């Protein structure tokens, strides 16, 4: 066996475990999900008739149940994305700047403090914030009562339900974005700031003309990952508001799972999931194009 061929074979062996995991846990489920979406796939039935694109057509046909279910959940999801993603980016960057401004001995401590909630499970997160937001016995309404103020229906009325979900999401996930931004800020050369100081630039000019352009690729990464994560929101509304009040906070992923495991309609549920995935891909591409386009125009 020639050395070059042996080297290629050895390289293939190294990627084989990842390739097998990729095919088993990602590629096969995607292909099987597409297959299911093209069939009348009732969970309790042994006969799954091929229906082609009918499940997709029903979603876009006004007046059908799946049309109402899909777009009602999509609107709730889009609202959450619009509210949460800017806050996840701005707050994550703000915390990173604050942590980097601390004395070196305290930075590791505060990084850990802000990152710890990200390591908690969804159930633990829900228990903590249910104790905070509960209308009758929650900490916040108890505090308001001591101040002789009226309690707030945090989880049972809008817009307070959205406020509760966004605050919970920020507390639970902001540590990840903060760590990413901290690493990005540490990669900005100190020479740039020193040269700017010599030229008389203030803190805002340094931030706007040195920090932001230098961390632009990381900003794009955080924006796309935050958008994908926000579109896939499930645990917070399911555990805190149960989709209420009414269906106001019942996001698309909750409707997909209800369609699949409550109504037992896996075919239409898979079609909804596929459309959701395509929408996320399109939005991510648009974000990437807009961000890189601005960068090219600026240069």
UniProtKB/TrEMBL annotation:
Taxonomy, superkingdom: Bacteria
Pfam families tied to this protein: BPD_transp_1
Domain spans labelled ABC transmembrane type-1: 74-287
Bilayer topology term: Multi-pass membrane protein
Stored InterPro entries: ABC_transporter_permease, MetI-like, MetI-like_sf
Key word Chloroplast present: no
Residues annotated as transmembrane: 12-35, 74-101, 113-133, 160-182, 218-235, 266-286
Annotated localization: Cell membrane
Protein name: Sugar ABC transporter permease
């Amino acid at each position: 066996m020639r050395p070059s061929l042996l080297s290629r074979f050895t390289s293939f062996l190294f990627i084989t475990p990842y390739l097998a995991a990729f095919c088993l846990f990602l590629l096969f489920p995607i292909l099987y999900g597409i297959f299911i979406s093209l069939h009348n796939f009732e969970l309790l039935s042994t006969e799954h008739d091929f229906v082609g694109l009918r499940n997709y057509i029903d979603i876009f046909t006004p007046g059908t149940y799946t049309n109402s279910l899909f777009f009602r959940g999509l609107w709730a999801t889009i609202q959450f994305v619009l509210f949460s993603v800017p806050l996840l980016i701005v707050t994550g960057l703000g915390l990173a700047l604050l942590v980097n401004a601390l004395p070196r001995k305290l930075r590791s401590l505060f990084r850990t403090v802000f990152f710890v909630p990200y390591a908690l499970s969804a159930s633990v997160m829900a228990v903590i914030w249910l104790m905070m937001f509960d209308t009758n016995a929650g900490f916040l309404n108890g505090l308001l009562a001591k101040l002789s103020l009226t309690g707030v229906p945090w989880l049972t009325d809008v817009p307070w339900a959205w406020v509760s979900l966004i605050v919970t999401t920020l507390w639970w996930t902001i540590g990840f974005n903060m760590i990413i931004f901290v690493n990005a800020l540490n990669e900005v050369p100190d020479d740039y700031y020193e040269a700017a100081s010599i030229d008389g630039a203030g803190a805002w000019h340094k931030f706007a003309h040195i920090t932001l352009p230098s961390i632009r690729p990381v900003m794009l990464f955080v924006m796309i990952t935050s958008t994908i994560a926000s579109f896939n929101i499930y645990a917070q509304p399911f555990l805190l508001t149960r989709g209420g009040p009414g269906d106001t906070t019942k996001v698309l992923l909750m409707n997909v799972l209800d369609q699949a495991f409550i109504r037992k309609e896996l075919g239409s549920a898979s079609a909804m999931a596929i459309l959701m995935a395509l929408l996320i891909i399109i939005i991510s591409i648009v974000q990437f194009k807009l961000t890189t386009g601005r960068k090219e125009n600026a240069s």
